[in-house]
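Appendix B, example 12.
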Amino acid sequence: RGYLNGAGAPYDIERALDLLHRAGAAGVSQAAVLAATTQAQFGSQIALGKAALAAAQSGDVTQYYAAATAYAGGMGVSSDAAQAAYWYAHCVSTDARCAISLGEDYLYGTGVIKDADRGVDLLVSAIQLGPRFQSDQARFFLASYYLSGVPAYQPDNARPYLQQLINENGPFSKQAQAMMARLPAEPAPGHDTVRDRIFAALTTLQNTVVNPYGNAPLFQALAHTGDAEALYVAGLFFHTSAWTHWGESYDNETAAEYFSNASSMGDYRATAQLAAAYGSGDGVKLSLQEQQRLQALEITQALKAASQGDVDAYHYLGWAYVAQDCTTAATWFTRAATAQQSAAESQLDALLVRTNLAGFTWEVAGDDDYELGMLYTRDPRLNEIYPSNPCFDPVAGERWLRHAIARGSANAAYRLGFLLENGTLGRTDIAQAKQLYAFAAARGNVMAAQRLRSLGS
């Protein structure tokens, strides 16, 4: 089985068959059955592999590709990626199949020393060699490589190959259309602003499935623009890569450097991140004194941003004051809930959330109706976060929670259900609580689902 599956031994069908036949002859019926099915499935391929290898070794150029695939698949010989690459190399100039296979070997370091440039060159040569199916196959492999995230997600390089496949309307056309639909939009001519670059980098990160850290050069380039927001986003990328272990080269020092530069330009979000870094010693020397200084600075910077109409700053200030001055917090949350955020800011916030770069709850404008509902309904009798709540106002709290529910907030539905179940609003309504829990549970709220089960629904 080890030789048959390439598990703990080289993939070698012939060796596997020999051992299975011997076990079957010794009375192991399962081995005899497996030998028979394997012989039926691979017997002819083993014979062809042996014949092709012998012919190739005798100089028959038409059998070089077959000899390589025999080594690649362990048909008549033990699987050997290096030997497969050796024979592919004999026919790359005449056979597109050889160029494609060896190109992939170089892209991913299979049987050869990894060399992405060499791999790309071989796949491009395969397109030129043809015939059409192999040309399209090479285009598809190139596009897939550029979108794999290894070493980086490169949609602009993939796009022309996908478009060619779509135009060909061949066997790869539908897959190419699906891949093209997931690519980030191309920037409009003459509109390559720093904000556009931020959106492009975040969209690229969002679409990267393998090795997100391979996008590091994109975020380094953002930082090099010297723009405060670009520095902040780049800092988030390197900070996030540190705690998610995207790659071995991550470092909080880079994140702290970018946050520090953005903070010096007045970005309160970067200052808040830098303050947190000094409080934990991530990327900087632990200093509670510096953390306190930065926490005071971030409030000052946020107030200035709010005075200029920054809706995210309204949201941040609501969070900043919620523990120490609920009246001021309510004022800022109300402004955030009733303000109209720009489309660009909404898009940026959404991208930060979808890429998991928004590490703090306040970093993006959020569910402010819900936050107000929470603020007005925290009840010390329920042992909630705060020992007292001078802003306790169940009427206002219910009103804001229902506003949030009307917009589809699962958190608000759970909260209102919890309040109605426990009588915090001055009345108990188990039937309505169940309805609200069901609404929240259907939208992924785990606690609501648990309460439903507890209530027998």
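DSSP finds 24 helices and no strands in the chain. The first helix runs from residue 2 to 5.
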